[in-house]
Amino acid sequence: MKITEVRIGRISVPLRTPFKTALRTVNSVEDVVVEIHTDTGAVGYGEAPPTGVITGDTTGAIIGAIQDHIAKNIIGRDVDEFETLCQTVQKCIVHNSSAKAAVDMALWDLYGQLYNIPVYKLMGGAKKQIVTDITISVNDPEVMVKDALNAVARGYDCLKMKVGVSPELDVARLSAVRKAVGDDIVIRIDANQAWTPKQAVKILNSMQDQGLNIELVEQPVPARDFEGLKYVTERSYVPVLADESVFSPEDAMTIMKMGAADLINIKLMKCGGLYNALKIASAAEVFGVECMIGCMLEAKIAVNTAVHLACAKNIITKVDLDGPVLCSEDPIIGGAVFNEKIITVSDEPGLGIKGLEPGRLVYID
Question: pTM for this one?
C-alpha cells in the first residue's frame, strides 16, 4: 500500500450555541481535512482545527505545513514502513502540531486498514465504550445555570464549566450552577490560563470552602509557568490538570517529575497526533499519573481518533470529547457513535471513517 496523493479540504460545521472561554468565542467548527490516498484505493482521513490562540496554528499554516513540507516527505512511501513514516511527519518541520496530528491520524487510519484491524485494538483495545463530559461556556451565572440544566436534562452527569472571565465572578458562577444541578452532578472547571498562581489558590480554595465540590481544575495558570502550576498544585484543595502546558512528551515528563500537576490532559492537536500521545500515556503509566483525553473544537474525524486512544489505554480515566455533540450537525460518515455522553468506538478497520456527506468538503487545489 503506497501513498500516491495527499488531498486537503475545508469543512464548516455550525455549533449549537457559541463556545465561550477565557481566550475566545467561536460560532462554528472550521477545520482542515486531510485525505491520504494509496495505490490500493484505500483512503486515510485526518483533521485539524485552527486554534491559533492555543496551538499557534492558523488555517493557512496548517495547509502550508502539509502541502509544502509533510506531503512531500510521505508521497511514494509504503504505509507498512509505519514507524518511519510517523517519525518523518514529526521531524520534517518544527512546531505545526495540528498539521502533524491530521496527517498522523490519517496514517494510523491506513495502517489499520492495511491489517484489517481498528486502531484502538492496534494500540491496546482496553474497552469499546467511554463516557464524556460536556462543556458549559463561560457566561453570566444565570446563562450558565440554564445551559447546565439543559445538559443534565440530556443525560450528562459531568459538566466542564469554563471560567476565568471576570475572576471575581467565578465563585458566583459555580455556586449558582451547583445549587441548580445538585450534589450528584460532577463539576470540573477550566480556567484556560486565566489566573495568576495566587489568584488560582484563593479562588479554588474558596470554592471548596463553600462546598462546591469541584472535581478538578484545568490549566489555572499560563501555559509555560510550570513553577506557577506547581505552586497551585501544592496549595489548592482542587486537583490540578495540566492542559496547555503539555505540548509534547517532554513537557509531560517535566511536569510529572516536578509534581507540577495531579493529572495530564492529552490532546492530539497539541502533541502532534497518536504517535506522541502514546508516549505521553506510557510516561503517565510509569509515573502513575492519570490522564484526561481532550479535544479542541473539532468535528468527528479528529475526535473519533481521540476516542480510539481513550478506548485503548486504561491510564486515560477522564474523557472530554464533546466536540461532535457541541455541533448542530454531523457531516462525517462512519466512525464512533456519539449518543450524547456515551461514545462507542467503531470496529471497522482503521478509524472507521467512510468519508463526508456530498458537497461538505471544499477541496484546496
Answer: 0.97
What is the set of domains in the chain, with CATH numbers?
3-116+357-364 (3.30.390.10), 121-356 (3.20.20.120)
- Stretches where the chain sits below pLDDT 70 are none
Grid cell 508521497 is found at 75
Q: Is 267 a known active-site residue?
A: yes
Specify burial of residue 116 (Cβ count, 10 A radius: 0-12, 13-18, 19+). exposed
91 is annotated as an active-site residue: no
Q: Are the C-beta atoms of 316 and 266 separated by less than 8 Å?
A: yes
Q: Which listed residue (162, 230, 300, 313) is catalytic?
A: 162
Residue 183 and residue 175: Cα distance in Å, rounded?
Answer: 11
What is the identity of the amino acid at 32? V
- Condensed to tens digits (0 to 9), the pLDDT of residues 326-344 reads 999 999 999 999 999 999 9
Q: Which residue is catalytic, options 267, 270, 300, 341?
A: 267
pLDDT, tens only, 35-92:
999 999 999 999 999 999 999 999 999 999 999 999 999 999 999 999 999 999 999 9
